[in-house]
Amino acid sequence: MKKGVNKVKFKANGLIWEVQSVQRDNEKLKVKGAECLGVTYYKDLQIFLDCTLPKELFRQTVIHELIHAFSFSFGVHLVANEKTEEPVCDFMGSHLDEIYTTTNKIMAACFEKGVK
Ligand SMILES: [Zn+2]
């Protein structure tokens, strides 16, 4: 699979978000002078991702930013308490795939005809 600059749209609770993977030096990836792997702009409903990241880190960053976007879209945005939201996003970014795979395994075992 080839890395590159791309645009994707998705809907969360009726809000249409736009996700863009951009080059590392893109201004949108800078927050208060710091370089970020990904940034979510709530008021613009936009997410920017560094397309030069290694694939696994890129994936974790996608999940991280999507948790921000979904929590914002569904009114449980915790930006007033960044101490909580950031660790939640980091945790989900690192472990969501694992939780999902394990869930599927359990579902398949408990409902034999379930999809893997
Ligand atoms: Zn974050």
From TrEMBL:
It comes from [Clostridium] asparagiforme DSM 15981. This is SprT-like domain-containing protein.
